[in-house]
Design a protein that fits this description.
Elements: E1 4-10, H1 14-27, H2 52-66, E2 68-71, E3 77-82, E4 85-95, E5 102-113, E6 122-131, E7 141-150, E8 154-159, E9 164-169, E10 177-181, E11 198-203, E12 206-211, H3 212-232, H4 238-241, E13 247-251, E14 256-267, H5 270-280, E15 291-300, E16 304-310, H6 317-329, H7 347-350, E17 363-365, E18 369-371, E19 378-383, E20 389-394, E21 398-403, E22 408-414, E23 419-427, E24 441-449, E25 454-459, E26 465-470, E27 476-479, E28 506-509, E29 514-519, H8 528-552, H9 557-573, H10 577-588, H11 595-608, H12 615-639, H13 654-657, H14 662-683, H15 695-700, E30 702-706, E31 721-726, H16 732-747, H17 753-761, H18 768-778, H19 790-807, H20 827-836, H21 841-862, H22 883-912, H23 933-938, H24 943-955, H25 959-967, H26 978-991, H27 998-1015, H28 1020-1031, H29 1036-1065, H30 1071-1078, H31 1082-1102, H32 1127-1132, H33 1139-1157, H34 1171-1176, H35 1194-1214, H36 1225-1248, H37 1254-1268, H38 1271-1278, H39 1284-1303, H40 1309-1318, H41 1321-1329, H42 1342-1355, H43 1361-1376
Parallel strand pairs: 13-17
Antiparallel strand pairs: 1-29, 2-3, 3-4, 4-5, 6-7, 7-8, 8-9, 10-11, 11-12, 12-13, 14-15, 15-16, 16-18, 19-20, 20-21, 21-22, 23-24, 24-25, 25-26, 27-28, 28-29, 30-31
Helix pairs in contact: 3-6, 8-9, 8-10, 9-11, 11-12, 14-22, 16-18, 17-19, 18-20, 19-21, 21-22, 22-24, 22-26, 24-27, 25-26, 25-28, 27-28, 27-29, 28-31, 29-30, 29-31, 31-33, 33-36, 35-36, 35-37, 37-38, 37-39, 39-41, 39-42, 42-43
Length: about 1400
């Protein structure tokens, strides 16, 4: 980006001001003046035939050049004054016609007359923005004041709305010039202190200086008073009453002064100090360390004058401000609001005439130094922003550059008559802290030669001309040398100025009323490589803007033509080679750049860099040449659509054409049909993406490598190009997109195979990379579903692979390495690895089959055949096969097995989602999408059974039934939906009979269920399913080893913790403690303990079953499988269990199960075992421990018997009453089943606990059951008792209690009176004696009780007293019934 002139604002309403003032001047009858008839040869002549519009424009241009024009440095206020009239225009933003951007316009705010004195005219104006005291102002001005100088000597200050703020006269002469100096935006480290703000008023040989701080405070006070008066509807006399403190100097020894500038304060040097002492003969006239203010005047005799004013002559600023505010504002009288001009009131009413005060002469100040030249008169002097330089314009068409420190001219420009000058200071935008003291900056002088209509920009102070513009004549260069008044140092940084405050110090007002700003990049202030670097950086920004415009909007043909020209111009502007590379990278990162644009840019850049000697430039030239080749190939690929599809599309004899075995082909298609059927069912119909592959994406896919990268190479030798290679960091999606662009039309028959091979070969590169792209494209999941007929596609794929390999010269299968990734691999091994990593199993199988045919063709051409290993041949006749043939054949067969596995995975998933039409991708198991050949070969022998087990558990609800049906030839289990699962698992076993043997598969299913329970212990169903599968396993070795492994890994620790907890609390723990110690709730712990007893019983049973030798064989096709040890190996490695340890743990689990389920109290499990038994607890079940002799103590027998009795009572109490009507039948059946289960566990304890009387426990069970009315259960329990006589004796009182409960019930006394009368006295007395207050006896029918008596009489001895009692009662009850 070079220097340029940009649109700033439109001031079209200046024409309205001109028309208004012209019409008012025509209404005034002017008096005859003989001076009106002078010969003005300099004015434009207007002939009678001239057009009226053209004449009006000429008069407007003449008027605009005669007016006094001032504008705010903030660019928001423009003031035009002529004679006694003034107009103010303010900036506003308006939407453009297309509504895309805002355009600044200067609208007419107000205008009016400032005086009614015909002798008083406006001589000078200056516009000063006033800073805001608010922190949120962001550097913008609060308001703007207009300082107007009159020919009468008055200085009047107005606000931008027209209100008079202050009026004061300092000298009785016309005001020649007004200058304002403010604090600069950046501190300059020069000799001058430029931080002091001041307003300078120039009269003839007199200058008045008003300090900026007092001016700022006084103006704020006056504006506040004016605002209050306006709000009250009264007038304010503050404009005439308030005065400013000032300093007045009489400039001597300068004949004619036309302009003046203030350079700031500087400390006096030794030479000036001694000179002052010598001339005044007074050592105290000037202190040694005094500070003086430097003023430079411009005019005639001398042309430039230099003055030094001592600061000690200035009054105190604080006292001046206090006096001005306290004495001048407190007595201001408010009346009607007439301070606004141009609103229908006369000027005399607004500004009453005030008698001029006495005017004092200024302090004399002698000329320090001057540039004498009798014929030269300086018209203007304009200081630079840093006050170190100033420029003057004189009457001899010269422009002088003045050093303000010495007052000497250091540079002269000739031939600039009526020149207008200004300054522009630019900063280095690359600095993070723009605008601070450390920022680099460049200073430029702007010269407008009005006579020639050109505008020049010169670098200071001895720099060249950096730009020239032909802007035409009759323009005005508007320059303000000040910023915002009252702003502290550094507040005007670009960061704080979103609207560009204080950034328009130099503007151009054109005859069409358009304001334009001048933009100069910082690099224009630099020379050499650094300047070129910054220049290219700005050009890159411009290029970025052009590329962004392509993204935002669509480009038509006309716009595209313009953009081509603009891009060409931008690329021509670059200087450094690295900038060309950055520019090309920016273009290649824009996806909207079309092919025609890329070709145009590449051609232009290639021409620009042709014949250059620099190494980097030659590299760029070579890059452009290669990119041009790539673009032409891209263009050919996009246009290479055949009119007729390729021949040989018939599928009748496709197998013979490419040498594929018919059986293999048929087997492949049968597998693919079912594979694709499940794919479509789960993933939906696959469709090829139709996204456009742009030319930019095409170029970004390639990397250019150069051979001559040595630093000491001969630069005169031409560089060699190594070839076009793909980028190494391309993602899989990018590679598939590129492969789709190149090969999609070839495989579908729209493009000839030979044409594509020729195009790729024309790139003079390694064609293996394109073969890799073909692999990535083909191995996209679901790719085969794009084709209706796969056979011709396979033929084209075969021809395409063979053509690429043959074109690259890869006919040797053993010696030619792959240069793409790993040089240690032969090229076909590299592509074999790609296939093994693919999850698209169907596509990979097709590709493996095609590669077999390709290898055969290459071998037939090469005549090289190797012998295959002996273990791969099953027949007696040896067939010689090469290593690569065997590998591709094995990979093909293995991929068919993986397709079978994948089919089962899809089937199982669809069975679980059969009611859904579509599936979200997050519902599909990850394993369903990640099966590949490499994972299967490297994951060990357990990969397949573990995978199938996962599918079965996730999707088959009654898996244990399916496995039980498959493990038995005949089964009583009803199988409805299980038949389908059995059929599918059978297909898997046909493909992999050894790996997926039913016992091995059951083993993996069992452990998978238990692992799932371990992840969520509250889901106890998973544990129950796992134990149930374990129960039905037929292989004893696997069953035993798996049971011991499950106990050790999943049960032992929890059983240990629960036992310790029960010993600690002495009862069944509550839910909170159970969760804390085991992570399971109270009910879950009960079921867990039950499963633990089942597991230990399974282990115990396997110890007595016959052992069948088992080996973990694997199918021959997968013998090369490697990886970690699988589950079956670990199970088979388990030792046989120790009967004694298993028995003790089974007893312990039974005890804690009964305690937990029956909520028993005051019992500790360890109290039932002796010390030696406790030492064996929780040792490994396979540990070799000799059974020691147990001496049972009588106390242990008592404790165990007591525990048994307590268990019986607890079980009986858990049963519901048989006469309860509120309990459902299902609940009663569940309670009875639980009681049976607990009785069985209790009987096991009675059998295994030494010293306990089993018959006593059984008799207690029978009696308690009869008392509760569970007669059937009682009779079954009686079958376990050996001593019947004792049982009979125990049953007679039980029957008596039941009879007493019925016959002597309080609720049935009246009904039972007749029954009492029929009873014999001795029977009545016996029944009455059995009556008890216990409420546990149920009121049961007499016939059921009669059956108990009859059962007791049968097992009693006839000569016993109980037998006689039983018979007597039986006769009596029988008589009653």
């Amino acid at each position: 980006m070079a220097c340029k002139i940009e649109f700033f604002a439109s001031a079209e309403e200046l024409h309205l001001v001109y028309d208004e003032w012209s019409s008012s001047n025509e209404d005034i009858e002017g008096e005859f003046n003989p001076d009106d008839f002078n010969d003005d040869w300099n004015s434009d002549w207007v002939l009678e035939g001239d057009d009226e519009k053209e004449r009006s424009e000429k008069e407007f241009r003449k008027w605009i050049n005669e007016c006094h024009i001032g504008f705010s440095p903030a660019g928001d206020v423009l003031v035009v004054a002529n004679d006694y009239k003034i107009a103010v225009l303010t900036r506003k933003y308006q939407k453009s016609s297309d509504g895309k951007e805002e355009i600044a316009h200067l609208y007419h705010n107000w205008s009016g007359c400032l005086t009614d004195d015909s002798r008083e005219r406006i001589s000078q104006i200056v516009v000063i923005p006033i800073a805001s005291q608010l922190r949120s102002s962001q550097g913008g001005p609060d308001w703007t004041c207009i300082v107007v100088g009159f020919t009468s000597g008055y200085i009047r200050i107005y606000e931008q709305g027209g209100g008079l703020l202050l009026s004061q006269i300092f000298h009785d002469d016309p005001v020649i010039n007004l200058k304002c100096r403010t604090c600069p935006s950046v501190q300059d480290h020069g000799i001058f202190d430029t931080t002091l703000e001041e307003l300078i008023i120039l009269y003839a040989n007199q200058v008045v200086i008003i300090e900026g701080f007092s001016l700022y405070q006084c103006l704020r006070a006056c504006r506040n008073q004016l605002a209050r008066a306006t709000a009250k509807g009264t007038a304010s006399d503050i404009g005439n009453r308030a005065t400013l403190a000032y300093r007045k100097l009489h400039l001597r020894f300068h004949s004619e002064i036309r302009d003046i500038v203030s350079c700031g304060c500087v400390k006096i040097n030794d030479f000036d100090y001694f000179q002052s002492i010598t001339m005044t003969n007074n050592a105290s006239v000037l202190p040694r360390d005094a500070t003086v203010s430097r003023y430079i005047t411009a005019g005639g005799d001398p042309v430039v004058g230099l003055y030094n004013a001592a600061d000690d002559k200035a009054p105190s600023l604080v006292s001046v401000f206090a006096s001005a505010v306290a004495t001048k504002l407190k007595d201001a009288v408010l009346s009607a609001a007439s301070g606004w001009l141009g609103f229908g009131q006369s000027t005399s009413e607004t500004q009453p005439k005030i008698q001029k005060p006495n005017i004092e002469d200024g302090c004399p100040l002698d000329l320090r130094y001057g540039l004498p030249d009798d014929k030269r008169v300086a018209e203007k002097i304009i200081p630079a922003p840093n006050s170190a330089l100033a420029v003057t314009v004189d009457n001899l068409a010269r422009v002088l550059l003045i050093d303000t420190e010495t007052g000497m001219a250091i540079r002269v420009w000739k031939g600039y008559r009526d020149a207008q000058c200004g300054w522009i200071q630019v900063f280095d935008s690359s600095n993070e802290q723009v605008g601070n003291q450390s920022s680099r900056r460049g200073l430029f002088l702007v010269i407008y030669a009005a006579r020639r209509g050109i505008l020049e920009i010169w670098l200071m102070q001895n720099g060249p001309r950096v730009a020239v513009f032909n802007i035409g004549k009759n323009c005005r260069l508007l320059y303000t040398g000040h910023n915002t008044l009252g702003v502290r140092l550094g507040i005007q940084s670009d960061v704080l100025n979103p609207r560009g405050w204080n950034s328009c110090s130099c503007l151009i007002l054109q005859p069409d009323s358009t304001l334009k700003s001048i933009k100069i990049p910082f690099y224009c202030s630099l020379s050499g490589k650094e300047g070129a670097k910054l220049r290219d950086r700005d050009t890159l920004k411009e290029l970025s803007q052009v590329l962004n415009s392509l993204i935002v909007a669509e480009v038509d043909e006309a716009t595209e033509f313009k953009l081509k020209g603009r891009l060409t111009k931008i690329f021509d502007s670059f200087v450094l080679p690295e900038s060309f590379q950055q520019a090309m990278s920016a273009v290649l990162n824009c996806s909207k750049v079309k092919l025609s644009m890329l070709l145009h840019i590449t051609e232009a850049l290639k021409i620009k860099t042709f014949g250059k000697e620099a190494k980097e430039t030659r590299q760029i030239h070579l890059t452009c040449c290669v990119q041009e080749v790539l673009l032409h190939v891209y263009e050919s690929l996009t246009d290479s659509k055949c009119d007729h599809p390729e021949g040989f599309t018939s599928a009748d004899n496709i197998e013979a054409t490419i040498d594929i075995d018919t059986e293999d082909f048929t087997k492949l298609f049968r597998s693919l049909n079912r594979y694709h059927e499940f794919n479509r069912k789960i993933f939906g119909q696959s469709k090829e993406s139709k996204h456009n592959f742009s030319a930019v994406q095409w170029l970004n896919s390639f990397d250019l490598e150069f051979l001559n990268n040595n630093k000491h190479e001969d630069l005169n030798k031409p560089q060699k190009f190594n070839g076009i290679l793909l980028y190494d960091n391309l993602t899989e999606d990018q590679m598939r997109a590129l492969g789709t662009f190149i090969f999609s039309d070839v495989l579908s028959g729209k493009t000839s195979v030979s044409d594509i091979v020729i195009l790729l070969k024309s790139l003079d590169t390694n064609l293996l990379q394109f073969l890799s792209l073909l692999y990535w494209y083909w191995l996209d999941f679901g790719h085969l579903e794009l084709y209706d007929n796969i056979k011709p596609v396979i033929r084209r794929l075969h021809l395409l692979i063979l053509g690429i390999i043959s074109s690259d010269g890869l006919t040797n299968l053993t010696n030619q390495q792959c240069t793409m990734v790993d040089s240690s691999l032969v090229w076909w091994e590299y592509f074999y690895n790609i296939i093994t990593n693919s999850v698209a199993l169907g596509e990979a199988a097709v590709l493996a089959l095609v590669m077999q045919t390709v290898i055969k063709v290459l071998q037939s051409n090469e005549g090289e055949i190797k012998a295959a290993p002996k273990d791969l041949s099953e027949s007696n006749e040896w067939i010689e096969l090469s290593k690569e043939t065997v590998l591709w054949t094995l990979s093909y067969q293995r991929l068919l097995d993986l397709i079978t596995i994948s089919e089962f995975a899809y089937f199982s998933f669809s069975m679980n989602h059969k009611d859904k039409n579509d599936y979200a991708k997050d519902q599909i198991p990850p394993a369903l999408l990640s099966i590949n050949l490499k994972a299967a070969l490297s994951s060990g022998k357990g990969f397949f059974p573990e995978l199938i087990a996962n599918y079965l558990i996730d999707n088959c609800q009654d898996l244990w039934k399916v496995l039980l049906s498959m493990s038995k030839e005949t089964t009583d289990v009803e199988a409805n939906n299980e038949d389908v699962w059995i059929k599918e698992i059978g297909k898997l076993q046909n493909a992999l009979p050894e790996i997926l043997e039913i016992n091995k598969l059951s083993c993996y299913c069992c452990i998978r269920y238990i692992k799932l329970w371990k992840e969520n212990k509250e889901d106890i169903r998973k544990l129950k399913y796992g134990i149930k599968i374990l129960q039905y396993m037929r292989n004893t070795v696997i069953k035993s080893g798996l049971s011991i492994k499950i106990w050790r890994d999943y049960f032992e620790k929890d059983i240990h913790d629960i036992t310790g907890l029960m010993d600690k609390v002495g009862k069944a723990p509550k839910d909170r403690l159970c969760r804390k110690i085991s992570g399971m709730g109270e009910d879950t712990v009960e079921e867990f303990l039950h499963q633990a007893t089942l597991l230990l019983s399974i282990i115990w049973k396997t110890l007595n079953e016959s052992v069948i030798t088992v080996s973990n064989n694997i199918d021959q096709l997968w013998n090369e499988t490697s990886g970690p040890n699988n589950l079956i190996d670990d199970v088979l490695a388990e030792k046989s269990g120790n009967q004694y340890i298993i028995k003790l743990h089974q007893q312990l689990c039974s005890v804690i199960y009964l305690i937990m389920t029956l909520k028993m109290r005051s019992i500790r499990p360890s109290s039932l075992f002796d010390t030696k038994s406790k030492e064996v607890f929780f040792k490994d079940l396979t540990e070799d421990i000799q059974k020691f002799k147990i001496s049972v103590d009588a106390s242990f027998i008592t404790v165990r018997t007591k525990f048994g009795m307590s268990v019986v009572s607890a079980i009986i109490d858990s049963l519901p009453s048989v006469t309860e009507e509120n309990i459902s039948g299902a609940s009663k059946e569940a309670a009875v089943a639980s009681a049976f289960q607990r009785f069985e566990i209790l009987r096991y304890l009675c059998d295994t606990f030494n010293g306990i009387d089993k018959n006593e426990i059984e008799r207690n069970i029978v009696c308690e059951l009869f008392l509760r009315g569970y007669d059937t259960m009682a009779q079954e329990a009686a079958s376990f008792i050996d001593d019947h006589a004792t049982l009979g004796q125990r049953l007679i009182p039980v029957a008596g209690r039941r009879l007493a409960a019925v016959l002597f019930a309080d609720s049935k006394v009246q009904q039972n009176v007749s029954s009492w009368s029929n009873l014999p006295p001795h029977v009545y007395n016996w029944i009455k004696s059995q009556e008890t207050d216990s409420g546990i006896v149920c009121h049961l029918p007499l016939r059921d009780t009669l059956a108990i008596l009859q059962f007791a009489s049968k097992i009693l001895s006839e000569d016993s007293e109980d037998f006689t009692t039983a018979n007597n009662v039986i006769e009596a009850i029988t008589y009653i019934l």
